[in-house]
User: Which sequence fits this backbone?
């Protein structure tokens, strides 16, 4: 059996069109949806992620404002930029590209962003809302995975989902969202403390790899017919490649695709969904801000 290859680019393109249509409606109300993108330093991977995001924003009719800070910037300088953007009504979302240089506390920076502009969904208020099932911004990669499963028609209700990885930005929120009542999977989380992940992964109807370990998921770890979602993006040395490396997921793609029912490629699987969900979060932030203004005008106008 050969797995159905999940086309993340196609699903993401539909979501980006939706974002574009909603951006058009906002412009019709005189509002230009706008994301502020802050990058500290010049990490090559971060530069490439930021460029990809800004291209997608422009294509959807969302404005972006670029803030580039030198690597040696003090934490307080970054916090001051965030405070200014929090107060700026023309900015609807704020994205601080991670990772930050080690002398800047990521926690302090994430907590400084106004939760109403937290389009990455990393602020403790956003995380709390997510866990409680309240309205709020969902983190883009985990949300993108859920949308991919839904759009592909993969049965999730009652399925056993195994998540490899427990980071704050992927594994933990993904496990949480999958176990929500309206999604209804039974969830197992494996991490570096899991002695033998194969015991669990072999039982998975849905196996999600988000460990950042190329080749981690081998065919013997996968149940016949399972949906395998590869979140991993790893640079693997490859002298034949122009840049000297190629991108690889966490899944041993060839052999696993012979056994799985569905599989996401890397690139072209989860990655495009992350950007699409970011665009939708920016639109939602702009719509929320405008609706709040309209409501206030109705109240006091
Ligand atoms: P991270 O390093 O913060 O977390 C990795 C997690 O995997 C940790 O919780 C660790 O306990 C767990 N882990 C490590 N080795 C393991 C093993 N052998 N078995 C089980 N669990 C193991 O990484 P992250 O930020 O969560 O990212 C994970 C991967 O996803 C990376 O490759 C990253 O580049 C990629 N990523 C992709 C997107 C996207 O849009 N496609 C977005 C974010 C992250």
Assistant:
């Amino acid at each position: 059996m050969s797995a159905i290859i999940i086309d993340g680019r196609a699903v993401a393109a539909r979501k980006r069109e939706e974002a574009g249509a909603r951006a058009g409606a906002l412009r019709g109300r005189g509002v230009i949806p706008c994301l502020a993108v802050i990058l500290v330093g010049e990490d090559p991977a971060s530069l490439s992620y930021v460029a990809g995001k800004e291209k997608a924003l422009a294509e959807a009719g969302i404005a972006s404002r670029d803030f580039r800070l030198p690597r040696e910037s003090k934490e307080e300088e970054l916090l001051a930029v965030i405070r200014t953007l929090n107060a700026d009504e023309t900015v609807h979302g704020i994205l601080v590209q991670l990772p930050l240089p080690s002398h800047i506390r990521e926690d302090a920076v994430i907590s400084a962003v106004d939760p109403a502009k937290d389009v990455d969904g990393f602020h403790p208020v956003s995380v709390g809302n997510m866990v409680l099932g309240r309205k709020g911004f969902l983190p883009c990669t985990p949300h993108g995975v859920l949308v991919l499963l839904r759009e592909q028609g993969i049965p999730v209700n009652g399925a056993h989902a195994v998540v490899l990885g427990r980071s704050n930005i992927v594994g933990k929120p993904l496990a949480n969202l999958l176990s929500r009542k309206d999604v209804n999977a039974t969830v197992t989380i494996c991490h570096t403390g899991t002695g033998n992940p194969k015991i669990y992964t072999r039982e998975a109807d849905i196996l999600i790899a988000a460990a950042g370990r190329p080749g981690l998921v081998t065919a013997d770890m996968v149940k016949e017919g399972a949906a395998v979602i590869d979140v991993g993006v790893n640079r693997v040395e490859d002298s034949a490649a122009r840049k000297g490396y190629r991108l690889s997921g966490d899944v041993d793609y060839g052999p696993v695709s012979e056994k799985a029912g569905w599989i996401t490629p890397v690139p072209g699987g989860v990655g495009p969904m992350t950007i699409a969900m970011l665009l939708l979060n920016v639109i939602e932030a702009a719509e929320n801000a405008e609706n709040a203004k309209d409501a206030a005008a109705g109240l006091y106008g």
Notes: The radius of gyration is 20 Å. The CA atoms of residues 70 and 175 lie 36 Å apart.
